[in-house]
Amino acid sequence: MRSANWERHLLTGLFLALYVLVLARLWWPIPLPGKPGWPDAVMLVLAAASSIAALARHLPLQNILFAALVIMLATAAVTWLDLKTGVPFGPFTVGDNPGPMLFRTLPWAPPVIWVVALLNSRGVARLILRPWRKTHNYGFWLIGVTAGLTAIFDLALDPFASRVKHFWIWGPTSLPLSWQGAPVVNFFGWAVVALLILAFITPLLINKQPHTRPPPDFHPLGVWLGGVLLFGVGAASAGLWSAVALDGIIGVGVATFAIRGARW
Length: 264
Prior knowledge:
Elements: H1 2-25, H2 38-55, H3 61-85, E1 92-94, E2 101-102, E3 106-107, H4 109-128, H5 138-164, E4 168-170, E5 178-179, E6 182-183, H6 184-201, H7 219-237, H8 241-262
Antiparallel strand pairs: 1-4, 2-3, 5-6
Helix pairs in contact: 1-2, 2-4, 3-4, 3-6, 4-5, 4-7, 4-8, 5-6, 5-7, 5-8, 7-8
């Protein structure tokens, strides 16, 4: 147990160090050895690893790893489908800084982003819904709120990823509605895909051992809000002030509901 705690704290510490470095480099071009973009990649991997390690305090590690694998495989398949057809997120192309490519066509980052977004959105949803965890429909509400938070996370992420970092570039659609260049259908697509994935992985993420009411876990909220803060700072560095304002509203709103639920 002590070894597991030490490893979890180490992962969290490394993630925070890379997070601060990436955040600082949005405003100050700190020169680093190696290929450009490696701090972003390492930070993303550490965010996923620390999220899995935090969940392992309450659930069997093999369950969490299998759930993460399902998320990655499902979202990799959906991303590949979208690159070919423009469905379900809308037409986009890989940008100038995609990093390593899977099978020469699929960027590696989106499936890992989905792991971070979905697992931590579920943790935040648990905090928000904590006062109602004994109600009959709690499980359905948890799935629905998780899917909604995942789409909201993407709402904050997309301007940062597409217009600041240029990880992907959106193409034109027949629908006039868009947010910072991203078609509105993208965010509905994220919610629908999240719902479908949650239908499969939710049984893996339920603690079936009898226990007293566990204390609230704020690690998912910290990662979720940290992501929104990063996206907001990145948007500010590019002068995307409407995105900055929305990120601020999202962060304050989600934090308020989550902390209120956790204190119940």
